[in-house]
Design a protein that fits this description.
Bound molecules: ligand C2E, magnesium ion
Strand order of the largest sheet: 8-9-11-12-13-14-15-16
CATH architecture of the largest domain: Alpha-Beta Barrel
Number of helices: 25
Radius of gyration: 37 Å
Distance between the termini: 120 Å
CATH class of the largest domain: Alpha Beta
Helix content: 55-70%
Largest sheet: 8 strands, mixed, barrel
CATH topology of the largest domain: TIM Barrel
Strand content: 5-15%
Structural class: alpha/beta
Shape: elongated
Length: about 675
């Protein structure tokens, strides 16, 4: 009973003592918890984060000083230095806090990464004014009465300064978001405005009621708001891998680029991620990527990011501009060694096939690259290096082509929307009947301003990569079928029209339906349609290819294997898939007639045997790229079915092609 009474007494005593500063103590405990939580986790080593740390430190000093003013005043120290120290510390922390908040929001929005002289004058003159006012208080406090008065005045001055910083932040943010509606931190705007609101409310209350005790609570609340909305480590950390996420990467790039830092971006690409995900499920695939991330986090001190599901990205600062290869080589070697070993997840062990792409900034890029461009570049590594093998450095040529690529993609989009593509038709000669019984439809895209004609070989792959190929092919087929139907081409001695399918298109599940509808729309006999397939890396599923071909064959279409002899269009494909027609590529033909070719005879043997073989399989042959009489005669003798090439005609616009047919057939 006695002890209980004693404790109760002590608590009452403590409460009595702390009554005037209870609010401050609450704020102090609250801020301490928040700071422990914050400093416990990994942070981004970038400017805005550093400024936030400034906010946390000055807030803490402010609250400690604010809390200690009253207890210290009871100490009766000579010349009141205790209370003077606490009050001035409080004012000084408050001034710095205001400045840090202003800078923090500025840096975070990426509005400004350097303070130029003009801005510096504005920002720091007022700051200097605050400092002088705080120092001057020492000369104004002769006795207690004057002292309190002087502090009230200096308090007021500093609150006005704080209000100035707050309004400047508000105005600049408004202007910034108006001018940059798509700015990256747009989504976080409301937190910025809330923080500003709390800030302004505290200042206004302090101006009206200078001896208020709520400022500590206000400051703690502001820190809490920024922490929750903008600086929670969780905002930047990817939960699966403990690496940083794409938001963090953007902030990094923003920070590094504007400070003209030199760095490498290195991307570890796990090539079989998707197939692992398909076979073993998402959990295992994610666990594997986490292991790779964990390895990177443990092995290196530089920032590690998880932006795309199948890769881990590292930013390697190169402040000393060390010899590129030497520096990066060490890192790459380390990665390669580890990636060649097994990874264990649960009971499974995996050997991953992987490679590392890297870009040297700014050497490999143009310096004016925007963050947005940079981010999309990181998501499209495969565009930028041509090397194979483990290490793949971005090819500056390809990166520079990016601009052209983007422009072309834009043109393709426009052409689709406005039906701006044009189809050309190249006559194909049938050897036996000596007539032009077939033609190949070839798409043309023209940019009237910069690029002129753009080759389909360039824009078709881009249309594929940007998901435009089905809409583009819809335009292509519509134009071709319309041309065929409205000119009654079948009555002009044409037995086959040949239209190209891109790799991606030929495995698209929507293809048979698209084709059926189009044929119905133009009332065409499907037997007239021959689809050319170029075997390519885009044909990831030979199952889908076969399925599509079977369905289309059922309705009467036929198929050619295009570009035989190049890339993937080879014998093994012919052994698996049934084509009616084989188109031999010019790269098999031309070497046979090239006098400078030291192995011209070999080329002829290869061509002859290919032709004989294909014919004996009962398939028809088109030879492409026939440009001379000599080539024509030779091929006729070899018994090929069709000839296509500039010798007869280049691809022609619709009207010219019709004229050609009239004259020749
Ligand atoms: P491809 O299907 O092999 O088309 C034959 C290409 O060879 C055409 O180039 C044609 O103009 C060219 N050519 C024909 N005869 C000769 C010749 O005697 N000498 C020379 N030097 N060239 C000749 P083009 O029109 O630039 O098309 C290139 C490739 O773009 C095509 O190769 C095809 O893979 C693709 N492509 C063209 N149009 C389309 C289309 O509508 N859809 C799809 N998916 N791809 C297309
Ligand atoms: Mg073709
Ligand atoms: Mg071809």
């Amino acid at each position: 009973m006695d002890t209980f009474g004693f404790i109760a007494g002590e608590i009452k005593h403590f409460l009595d003592l702390t009554t005037p500063i209870q609010l401050q103590l609450v704020a102090l405990s609250f801020l301490l918890v928040l700071e422990i939580m914050y400093f416990h986790r990994r942070r981004l080593p970038i400017l805005s984060t550093r400024t936030f740390i400034g906010i946390l430190i000055f807030s803490l000093v402010f609250i400690i000083a604010d809390t200690s003013v009253i207890p210290v005043s009871k100490l009766q120290l000579p010349r009141n230095w205790g209370i003077r120290l606490a009050s001035q510390l409080r004012l000084y922390a408050y001034l710095n806090l205001s400045l840090c908040q202003y800078l923090y929001i500025t840096f975070l929005q990426g509005r400004r990464q350097h303070i130029n002289i003009k801005d510096g004058l504005r920002i720091f003159t007022i700051y200097g004014f605050g400092v002088i006012s705080i120092i001057s208080v020492n000369f104004l406090t002769k006795n207690e009465q004057q002292g309190f008065f002087a502090y009230d005045v200096i308090n007021l001055i500093n609150n006005i300064i704080s209000l100035f910083y707050a309004s400047m932040t508000l105005i600049e943010s408004r202007i910034f978001y108006k001018k940059n509606p798509d700015s990256f931190f747009r989504g976080k705007r409301r937190y910025i405005y809330w923080t500003l609101a709390v800030w302004i409310i505290i200042v206004v209350i302090q101006i009206i009621q200078s001896r208020t005790t709520i400022s500590s609570i206000g400051v703690a609340a502001m820190c809490f708001l920024i922490y929750m909305g903008l600086e929670t480590p969780g905002n930047y950390i990817d939960h699966d891998t403990e690496a940083m996420n794409s938001t963090a990467l953007r902030l990094f790039l923003q920070d590094y680029i504007s400070h003209k830092k030199v760095f490498f971006i290195l991307n570890i690409d796990i090539e079989d991620y998707e197939s692992i995900e398909e076979q073993f499920g998402e959990n295992i695939a994610t666990a594997l990527i986490s292991k790779v991330s964990e390895f990177a986090l443990k092995s290196f001190t530089f920032p590690v990011f998880h932006v795309a599901p199948n890769s881990i990205t590292l930013i390697v600062p190169n402040n000393k501009r060390l010899e590129h290869n030497f520096y990066i080589d060490v890192i790459l070697k380390r990665l390669k060694e580890r990636l060649e070993q097994a990874w264990f997840v649960g009971e499974n062990s995996f050997y991953l096939s992987s490679h590392c792409d890297f870009i040297v900034y700014p050497d490999d890029l143009n310096k004016e690259i925007s963050i947005h461009e940079f981010m999309s570049l990181i998501n499209e590594w495969h565009f930028y290096s041509k090397d194979l093998g483990f290490v793949r450095q971005a090819n500056p040529e390809l990166v520079k082509n990016r601009k052209r690529h983007n422009k072309i993609v834009k043109l393709v989009r426009e052409a689709i929307d406005t039906d701006g593509i044009e189809m050309y038709y190249q006559p194909i000669y049938e050897v036996q009947s000596k007539k032009f019984t077939n033609f190949e439809a070839l798409v043309r895209l023209k940019d009237n301003k910069t690029y002129g004609y753009i080759s389909p070989e360039e824009f078709i792959p881009l249309a594929e990569k940007h998901g435009l190929i089905m809409r583009l092919s819809d335009r292509i087929f519509n134009q071709v079928f319309d041309f065929v139907a409205s000119n009654k081409i079948a009555d002009k001695g044409i037995s086959h029209i040949e239209v190209n399918l891109s790799g991606l298109q030929s495995v698209d599940a929507a293809l048979p339906e698209q084709m059926t509808q189009l044929l119905r729309k133009y009332e065409l006999n499907p037997n007239i349609v021959n689809l050319e397939i170029t075997e390519s890396i885009a044909i990831t599923s030979s199952f889908m290819l076969k399925k599509n071909m079977d369905e289309l064959k059922k309705i009467g279409c036929t198929f050619s294997m295009d570009d035989f002899g190049t890339g993937y269009s080879n014998l093994s494909q012919m052994a698996k898939i049934d084509y009616e027609l084989i188109k031999i590529d010019k790269s098999l033909l031309w070497p046979c007639f090239d006098k400078n070719n030291p192995v011209q005879e070999n080329a002829k043997i290869i061509l002859d045997n290919m032709i004989t073989m294909i014919l004996s399989l009962g398939k028809k042959i088109v030879v492409e790229g026939v440009e001379t009489k000599e080539q024509l005669d030779y091929l006729e003798k070899m018994g090929v079915t069709y000839i296509q090439g500039f010798y007869f005609s280049k691809p022609l616009p619709a009207a010219d092609y019709l004229k050609f047919l009239e004259e020749k057939n």
